[in-house]
Amino acid sequence: MTYTLITANRNYSSWSLRPWILMKALGVSFDDRIEPFVAASNYAAFRSFSPTGQVPALIDGDRTVWDSLGITLYLADRHAGVWPADEAARAFAQCAVAEMHSGFATLRSDCPMNVGVRVEPHIHSPALGRDIARVRELWEQGLERFGGPFLAGAAFTAIDAFYAPVAFRVRSYGLDVGPAAQGWVDHMLSHPAMKQWEMEALAETWREESHEAEIGSAGRIIADYRDG
């Protein structure tokens, strides 16, 4: 039976991107269903398919799997390649995924994802600086230890999927992550699945007021490549 992966707007939904790009990169077949954000709160509508009222959600027959990490763990039990085969690389990837899932709050709030725009940030707070420095440190460590071009070695795995939204943020906000980490960003942005997500994001014509306001609070929009 084919999976159904439910995600939201390509421009905004960083949590949706994680399992979507993981499944695309690994060649895991799924039906792609988009439930766009239409208001500041979509809880009631999203409760019809997700117990948390949030995206993403994976439907497997009569089973619903929710949360980007929950979906990743579920897929890892059923498909090869979600985690690196090498034990050291796998331990690193799993820790980095957990760190991304629970941390980097300032990076999320100060640099909300919007694939189609370029933003000149208002300020770089010390807390944001710490998050960016940690991202750079983690990426450089993975690339050096495991040889790249992905964060845990030669193959795309869950760690790359979980940091894929940050690659878009680095570009949108012009964040300085250093040459080695920027190399990973450039490599990720050229990945066919990332390019497909970006193409679909740029083609979106709907806008959600609260998400657009977040971008305006983060900085001055200096370019907008979205249709409409």
UniProtKB/TrEMBL annotation:
InterPro entries per record:
Glutathione-S-Trfase_C_sf, Glutathione_S-Trfase, Glutathione_S-Trfase_N, Thioredoxin-like_sf
Tell me the first and last residues of the signal peptide. Answer: none
Looking up CDD domains in the UniProt record yields: GST_C_3, GST_N_1
User: Which segments of the protein form a coiled coil according to its record?
Assistant: none
- Where the record annotates domain GST N-terminal, the positions are 1-83
Q: Which domain of life is it from?
A: Bacteria
- Tell me the protein's name: Glutathione S-transferase family protein
